[in-house]
Write a structure and sequence with these properties.
heterotrimer; A mainly alpha (87); B mainly alpha (250); C mainly alpha (150); A: 87 residues; mainly alpha; 3 helices; elongated; C: 150 residues; 81% helix; 0% strand
Chain lengths: 87, 250, 150
């Protein structure tokens, strides 16, 4: 029974990672990536590696989404701006 | 190189790597067994040096040199980002427009910012006692400052975050780690050897010799590096505009 | 072996399962709500795991998730404000369901822990989690009405 929680965490990580690859829009990928981060943190916790789990939570829950979404915003503004420039 | 040759090269390299990985996995000890030769030695050493969290002892004492390499990687990566994302000659800065935020979100950000900052410092300070440490706490502390951007606007964040000061502190804390290592050499032992300070009482904040000091240096370094990194990204996303009429380039 | 690990398994399987399904299919609004709920449901799971393994220091993981999870949702709410403005996703039903799970877990653990520093920490985690989730839901349903270029 103690292994059941490890199986759940492993499955969640596998499904989330696949979903992150299958989605093609960067904003949606960032959303899946945020959930993948929490799933990984759970996996590290059940494998008794809380230090690594903490690193994953610290980086994955707010910092990575912020970096990705800022990049998405810059790219979108650039292409919108480009359309105005060619008109 | 034709695409065909390239494909073969990738297949060869990937196949070799896969074969080696499978071969290595077949020789691994069984999952969840009782035989942990490295773990037993690491725990014994960390207990001998009065460090309650064995992971902190491995990171900042037994393998402190590796951590210096990791710190250098982060430092170099942030330096690369600063160079790549600087304001180019054909770009100009527009002052950011203020953002309208509903009052509950603003209140939440202002309440949680100090709480998250204190939590970050707590995670750094207890690195040698409980899970956590400089890296984790530093990232939390740096993230907390950016609640100012989320709950108010970019101008408000810029007021509480002079980037130059964080750049200087980043370099200073990286040097502090190096100097603590050199202090070991000067006292007659070895670089980054944990012989400088008394080991203290087990499971207290000051236990573990130089572990808390190296941990704190890493915490400050990571916090400043993340702030500088996010500052460059925010500058690009919010302030820096390319000159009009030159946008046809891809 | 104790009853906490199976309880954590149920909470985590349910929480991660539903949020993964929500975050990987459907419109943007639904996905953002699912991302918010992943914090609300995984955090009680981590608290139950800490109790099950008998290690109070594992509560730090739940504390960090309760602090930073809603911040992550705020990032999406703020930087996707234009896309979310048409949908105004609130998802109050699932949000309150997740909040109920959080409240029940925190109260049960408080009752088991008894008064002391550990209980204060649990209550702080609970308050941050519930406040953060309700606020993040509020932010998703039009929390940034006037995001220009800022």
């Amino acid at each position: 029974m103690a292994d059941a929680v490890i199986v759940v965490a492993l499955l969640a990580v596998a499904v989330a990672a696949t979903a992150a690859v299958v989605n093609r829009d960067p904003a949606r990928q960032a959303l899946v990536l945020a959930v993948l981060g929490t799933a990984l943190a759970v996996l590290f916790t059940v494998l008794q590696a809380p230090d690594v789990g903490l690193s994953q939570l610290a980086v994955g829950s707010a910092l990575t989404p912020l970096l990705i979404m800022l990049s998405v915003r810059k790219v979108r503004r650039r292409s919108a701006h480009g359309k105005d420039g060619t008109q | 190189m034709t695409p065909r040759v390239r494909l073969w090269l990738v297949c060869l390299g990937g196949g070799g790597l896969a074969a080696l990985l499978v071969a290595a996995c077949l020789r691994l000890p069984a999952f969840g067994g009782l035989w942990h030769p490295y773990g037993d030695r690491a725990v014994r050493t960390s207990l001998a040096r009065h460090t309650a969290n064995t992971v902190a002892s491995v990171n900042f004492d037994q393998r402190a040199f590796d951590t210096m390499g990791e710190m250098t990687i982060l430092f170099g990566a942030v330096l690369g980002c600063v160079v790549l994302l600087r304001q180019a000659r054909d770009e100009h800065r527009d002052p950011p427009e203020p953002c309208e935020v509903v009052p509950p979100v603003r209140r939440y950000a202002l309440i949680v910012l100090p709480v998250a900052l204190v939590t970050g410092l707590y995670v750094i300070a207890h690195g040698q006692l409980s899970p956590g440490g400089g890296f984790q706490g530093g990232v939390v502390a740096a993230t907390s400052l950016h609640l100012m951007y989320l709950g108010a606007d970019y101008a408000a964040l810029e007021r509480i975050r002079p980037v130059e000061a964080y750049e200087v502190t980043d370099a200073l804390s990286a040097s502090a780690y190096l100097l603590l290592g050199l202090a070991g050499v000067l006292t007659g032992t070895a670089f980054l050897a944990n012989t400088l300070l008394p080991y203290g009482t087990f499971n207290t904040l000051s236990s573990g010799g130089t572990v808390p000091l190296l941990n704190a240096a890493i915490g400050v370094e990571v916090a400043c590096a993340v702030v500088v990194l996010l500052a460059r990204f925010l500058d690009q996303a919010v302030e820096i505009e390319e000159a009009k009429g030159e946008m046809s380039a891809p | 072996m104790n009853g906490w690990i199976p309880a954590a398994t149920v909470v985590l399987a349910g929480g991660l399962g539903t949020t993964l399904w929500g975050v990987s299919t459907g419109g943007l609004g639904r996905r953002v709500i699912a991302q918010n709920l992943s914090t609300a449901l995984v955090c009680p799971g981590l608290l139950l795991l800490a109790q099950g393994y008998g290690r109070t220091s594992y509560v730090d993981l739940a504390l960090l998730l309760a602090l930073l999870g809603p911040v992550g949702t705020l990032v999406f709410a703020r930087l996707l404000a234009d896309d979310l403005a048409e949908e105004n996703p609130a998802g109050w039903g699932p949000t309150w369901a997740a909040v109920t799970v959080g409240v029940v877990v925190v109260l049960v653990l408080c009752a088991v822990t008894g008064p002391g520093r550990a209980m204060v920490k649990l209550l702080i985690v609970g308050a941050l989690l519930i406040g953060g989730n309700l606020l993040a839901s509020r932010a998703l349903s039009g929390g940034f009405p006037g995001v220009g270029r800022g």
